[in-house]
Amino acid sequence: MNLNNTVALITGGKRIGQVVARELAARGVDVAFSYARSKAEAEAAAGIVRGAGRRAAVFQSDLSQPDAAAALVQSTVDTFGRLDILINMASVYVKKPFADLTAADWDANINVDLRAAFLCAHAAAPHLKARGGGRIINFSDWVASSGRPRYTGYLPYYVAKTGIMALTEALALELAADNILVNAIAPGPIVAPPGTTGAESKAVEEATPLGRWGGEMEIAKGVLALLDSDFITGETIRIDGGRHVK
After folding, report:
1. Spatial contact of 165 and 184, defined as CB atoms under 8 Å apart
2. How far is CA 69 from CA 61, 73, 108, 119, 171, in A?
3. Integer Cα distance of 116 and 51 in angstroms
4. Which of 9-13, 71-75, 187-191 is the least confident region?
5. 193-223 pLDDT per residue, tens
6. Residues 103-131: what's their mean pLDDT?
7. b/e map of 123-160 (b: 16 or more CB within 10 Å)?
8. Spatial contact of 159 and 149, defined as CB atoms under 8 Å apart
9. CB 190 within 8 A of CB 217
10. What pLDDT, on a 0 to 100 scale, did the predictor assign at position 14?
11. How far apart are CA 8 and CA 5, in angstroms?
12. Summary mean pLDDT of the chain
C-alpha cells in the first residue's frame, strides 16, 4: 500500500499509538486520533504528526456507546475528505476477581475492546471501499493469541481480545472482495504499565526469551509491515519477544 497522502484513524492510542502515528506521519500519512479521557496524550500525539508536516485531528469519543463509532469515522472523513486506514487500539484493561465481576464490568470490556472494533470497521468499510481498498488493523493480546488465559482477574478482557481474532478473520473474508485487508496485532511485553516496580519489570524480562521489553517501536514496525503487504489478511501477528513459548 502506498501510504503517501493517505489518512489513518487511530482509536485509543496513547503511548504506543503515539509512536505508531509518528511513523505513519514520517511516511506521508495524515492521522486522526480518538480519546475517551486522555485528551492531553492525544493532543501531544497530534502535535508530533503536525511536526512531521502532516495533518492531524483529535476527537473525543466514548466508544462504549454504540453510536460513537459511526460519528467518529464520519468526523474523520469530514475533516480529511477520505479514510484509508483504521487502527483499532481502544481498550479497557482492569483487573477484577471473577467473584466480583458484574454485568456492567463485562459490558465495559466487551463494548470497548470488541464491539467498538466491529462498529468502527463497519462504519469505515464503505469509505475504504470508495478509495479502492484499505487496511484495518485490530489489536488483540499475546495471551489471547497464545490460546490460554494464563492470568486470573482479566476474564472479560481475555474473552474480548480472543474475540478480536475471530472478528479479524471474519472481516478479512467479508471485505476481501473490496480489497480491504484486515489483520490484528497481539502485543506482548512492550512497555511496562504505569506503577510497575523494578522487581515486576525484571520478572517480565526473565519470562521473555529475548530477555527484555520490546518498546513501542516494535509495534509500529508490525503495523507498517501489515500496511506494506498487499497479500496478508485475516492474520493475528504476535509481537511478544517469544513470551508465548516460555
Report:
1. yes
2. 8, 6, 15, 6, 17
3. 30
4. 9-13
5. 888 999 999 999 999 999 999 999 999 999 9
6. 98
7. bbbebbeeeebbbbbbbbbbbbbbeeeeeeebbbbbbb
8. no
9. no
10. 83
11. 10
12. 96
What is the 8-class DSSP label of residue 158? H
CATH no., domain 7-239: 3.40.50.720
pLDDT reported for residue 194: 84
**If pLDDT is split at 50, 70 and 90, which confidence band does 165 have?**
very high
Predicted confidence (pLDDT) at residue 139 exceeds the cutoff of 80: yes
Nearest of 216, 142, 137 to residue 180 by alpha carbon: 137
Helices and strands (DSSP H and E) totals, the chain: 9, 7
Residues annotated as catalytic are 154
Residue 117 grid coordinates: 472494533
Please name the residues in contact with 181: beta carbons below 8 A apart, sequence gap of 6 or more.
133, 134, 135, 136, 172, 175, 226, 229, 230, 232, 233
Nearest CA to 141 out of 120, 168, 122 is that of 168
Place of cell 517480565: 204
CA distance 234 to 241: 22
Q: Give me the amino acid identity at 105.
A: D
HEC string of 195-232 equals CCCHHHHHHHHHHCCCCCCCCHHHHHHHHHHHHHCCCC
